[in-house]
Amino acid sequence: MTNFTINATARSDEGKGASRRLRHAGQFPAVVYGADKDAQSIAVEHNTFWNMIGNQDIFSSVVALDVDGTTENVVIKDLQRHPFKNLVMHMDLQRVTDDTMIVKSVPLNFLNTDTNPGSKLGGVTVPLMTEVEVRCAAKNLPVSIDVDCGDMVNQQSKRMSHIALPEGVELTALARGSDHDHGIVMVTKARKAR
């Protein structure tokens, strides 16, 4: 179910001073909550986690969290970074089971953007969105959603309702009605040679 594991230790001291001491020790504070359990304060080793978030898939994946040898599945709900340093300041994690319904932003992966009929005639395939918000059970959470642009012609666009979704996954925008069926990609008109 998960390709990522975050190792952490439980912590009891809280507050700005405790967080500062953690950061000086190469760690950062985090909180894990949900699944009808009490919230738990934890400490995560900074450099190992910083290397993990180099892979953007972690933000749209179910992650294994190992706290002092006890493992449970979580999703990253919030990540606070330092405004100009390469530092994670704090993280919120939500516990999930296979059937926990979650809402997450998932990246769009545009396929065949250079080989569609519109591009072959000089048009340019332009993404209008880079991610969409989905609602699904944790076990169905896609790392990304593919959008095939192979059949697009000049001045054509695709909307959210045109996305082929994995089973059990819905777009939250479409659940709010057809007024929220926004464009996700378009092929611009080819320029005429002068």
Structural class comes to mainly beta
- Please identify, by name, the CATH architecture of the largest domain: Beta Barrel
Order of helices and strands: EHEEHEEEEHEEEEEHE
CATH class of the largest domain: Mainly Beta
Number of helices: 4
Provide the domain count: 2
Q: What separation lies between the terminal Cα atoms?
A: 55 Å
For the largest beta-sheet, the strand count, sense and barrel status come to: 6 strands, mixed, barrel
Q: Please name the CATH topology of the largest domain.
A: Ribosomal Protein L25, Chain P
Total beta strands: 13
Q: Bin the strand percentage.
A: 35-45%
CATH H-tier superfamily of the largest domain = Ribosomal Protein L25, Chain P
Helix content: 10-25%
Work out the radius of gyration: 21 Å
List the helices and strands and how they pair.
Layout: E1 5-10, H1 16-24, E2 27-34, E3 37-45, H2 46-52, E4 63-67, E5 70-81, E6 88-95, E7 101-111, H3 117-120, E8 125-127, E9 131-137, E10 145-148, E11 157-159, E12 170-171, H4 172-175, E13 183-187
Parallel strand pairs: 1-4, 2-6, 7-10
Antiparallel strand pairs: 1-3, 2-3, 4-5, 5-6, 7-9, 8-13, 9-12, 11-13
